[in-house]
Amino acid sequence: MQRILVTGAAGFIGFHLARKLCAEGHHVYGVDNLNDYYDVSLKQARLAELQKHNSFKFTKASLEDAPAIENIFKEFKPEIVVNLAAQAGVRYSLENPQAYISSNIVGFTNILEGCRQNDIQHLVFASSSSVYGANKKVPFSETDNVDNPVSLYAATKKSNELMAHTYSHLYGLLCTGLRFFTVYGPWGRPDMAYYKFTDAIIKGEAIDVYNHGDMRRDFTYIDDIVDGVYKLIQADINKNEPYRLFNVGNNNPAPLMDMISILEDKLGKKAETNMLPMQPGDVPETYADISALEQAVGFKPSTSLEDGLGKFIDWYQGYYG
């Protein structure tokens, strides 16, 4: 029974993790600014689900609001912090770079300071597979050089890893960084391809397919992601290794066109496609080497893309009626 602060609790991964933690009997304090990067009503619906648990408490706040974050640490006195709040999305970072600096750099500094000043046992934080940039060597390993980001979003996530490493080194803060690979599933993010494609196919609208469909993604189902994060939170941490980085992926990349075929099959409807060139900041393939996480906590994703997309569509049809 631990006191766990989860930032981004109304977000996709944050919601699923907070729900799992509450179900396992932990006290969870959720923080989210409920910004309008995507449909706020979806965030509020996730929050309503979480508020069914007596062990869940919520405050609306932005990470970049230092006094608010300071107060949350003082009031809740967490033992563990899971920082999942961030400005997400590669494409949006081309339009609104300032949002990424505010949330992902300034906001993350406030989280690190909160951890340092409040004797936090363990900080678990979200990084991203985007840090690998256009890495040619596959699968991507935590030991690969990641000094060549191809989007500002990736650059901020790489910065988070460096900042956490510094705090770990200077103050002995136990930090675990998680490089998530293309997470999908029920209650997902509407800006993600699988969600947008489902929406468009149902409505009979055309979908934009970049790089003329020649893309592969290591699609990782949300329950597998949460299982990995939960195991890390529960794991005994080696104090001799205060800073760790893990890929959290499926270790099984699928062609983008396969994902579209599965959606067509499940929805019983053909997709109309606009074949387009590669977008700036995008990469042709992601592929996670997950051997380190498997060795550390026995992580083994078990959900096939077909099953995972089927569960997403069931949720989508139920949610939108």
Overview features:
about 325 residues; 11 helices; alpha/beta; globular; seven-stranded parallel beta sheet; about 45% helix
What does this structure look like?
It contains eleven helices and 13 strands. By secondary structure, it is an alpha/beta fold. Strand 5, helix 6 and strand 6 form a beta-alpha-beta unit.
Question: Radius of gyration, Cα only, in angstroms?
Answer: 19 Å
Look at the structure and give the mean pLDDT. Answer: 95
Widest β-sheet, arrangement of strands: 3-2-1-4-5-6-11
The portion of residues assigned to helices is 40-55%
> What about the largest sheet?
7 strands, parallel
Approximate shape: globular
Low-confidence stretches: none
Tally of helical segments:
11
Number of strands: 13
N-to-C span: 37 Å
Structural class: alpha/beta
Along the chain, the helix and strand elements come as EHEHEHEHHEHEEHEEEHEEHEHH
What portion of the residues fall into strands of 2 or more residues?
15-25%
